[in-house]
Amino acid sequence: MNRKEKRELEKEAKYFFELMKNNKHFFKDLNKVLLQVKDPRNQSYITYDTDVLLLAPILKNLFNMKSMRGMTESFNRDECIENVKKILGKKTLVELPHYDTINDFLSALDSKELEKIRTYMIKELLKKRSLEKYRINEKYWGVIIDGTGLFSFDEKHCEHCLRREYRDENGEVKKTVYMHHVLEAKLVVGDMVLSIASEFIENESEDVKKQDCKLKAFYRLAEKLKKIFKRLPICILGDSLYTCEGVFDICEENKWKYMLRFKEGRISSVADEFAKLKLLESDNKLEDICWVNGIAYNQRKLNLIECELDEQDGNKKQFLFITDMNITKRNAKALSHAGKSRWKIENQGFNNQKNVRYYIEHANSHNYTAMKNHYILTQIADIMMQLFEKGTKLLKTIKKTAIKISSDLLESFRRHILTDEDITNMVKPIQIRCT
Fold first, then answer.
1. What span, in angstroms and rounded, lies between the C-alpha atoms of 193 and 347?
2. Is residue 149 part of a domain?
3. What mean pLDDT do residues 279-300 have?
4. What count of Cα atoms within 13 Å lies in the side-chain half-sphere of residue 182?
């Protein structure tokens, strides 16, 4: 497609309308869910409803805006006010909230209220039959677990900060860095990785003897996942950190499966047994894949699969995964790719949110509760954006960078007021394929 053909296609494009239509298709009751958030503010002094206060920072993320101040300045247009008014079905809306007003609200808001919004969205998506083909072994939903750093400070930010000390050759503390990290559970469906739960890695107080860590946070995250998705058949995907007895026990108790990266140093007896048996079991091979089922370990049976997979630089590398799913010639290839999909949380997930869009390492508030709420709002926006990018026919035809897509959305939001006909067309049934 040449440049002229692209221009012709884009002449009638209404990017913001397409985004909102996409949201309506997947989340028809989202406006009600935003409005039903339990408001912690004194009801006597309220100017803006919760749906307005939450939609503004969600749009900020969708439009790839780094700061709350920049959002307030950019949204200060009659077109923006009118568009938000129409999207939310407000009879009156004179101004959009200032970033200080939003941050004051987020500083008092219980993060569980935002988690309910995300849960509603994910449960709506799980009802869509179009995502069934991404299940592992035609049954289990792949859920990737991994953590990342969000904010770092040279001075203590709050009592929940993690600490990392840098010492000189004499063992004296030369520098202390204070940090906030998060552990994420992301649903992997094709090329999309969608946040379904977050657990912040945080100290209970500044005088704790042993700091919080990813493994401790996993146990809390697992409890949260089971409570939210009681009967969802899950397969946990993770790195070698989670190859341990505690994780195995939790997965068994919750009736989950697991597919984890395995390194020899993690469970040496299992690694030794696999090295011997894979040479003897000649039938358990398929192209660049070999496996061994039923290795005994602490009154349980473990299965290992070794495969050669392509890395990002084009080279091939041997990977070893441990699982409680029986490996056969029929599913070996699919299971090896399921194990590899763990890297999507780093590439399509954290790397994208740090270096391409959303700026999750930028603290939008100095208040810790607001910081956490901003992070969850980013995950909500990211779900919307991935569905928009994968499901909008025009975007699949005209290849655009992530930054350009967000830029076009912002321009459309700022310059084109949604018509009554647009609002009517938003709720009309459409078919979207996120491939």
1. 10
2. yes
3. 90
4. 22
Tell me the pTM: 0.93
Cα maximum dimension of the chain: 76
Q: What is the CA radius of gyration of the chain?
A: 24
- Exposure pattern of 284-309 as b/e (b: 16+ CB <10 Å)? bebeebbbbbebeeeeeebbbbbbee
User: Pairing mode, if any, of strands 173-189 and 141-153?
Assistant: antiparallel
Q: What is the mean pLDDT of residues 63-90?
A: 96
For residue 46, what pLDDT is reported?
87
- Top mean pLDDT of 232-246, 257-271, 308-322 is at 232-246
Residue 277 near residue 253 (C-beta atoms within 8 A): no
Same domain, 28 and 72: yes
Residues 168 and 70 in one domain: no
Same-domain pairing of 147 and 282 = yes
Residue 126 counted as domain residue? no
274: CATH:
3.90.350.10
- Interatomic CA distance for residues 394 and 7, integer angstroms: 12
Tell me what pLDDT residue 2 has.
79
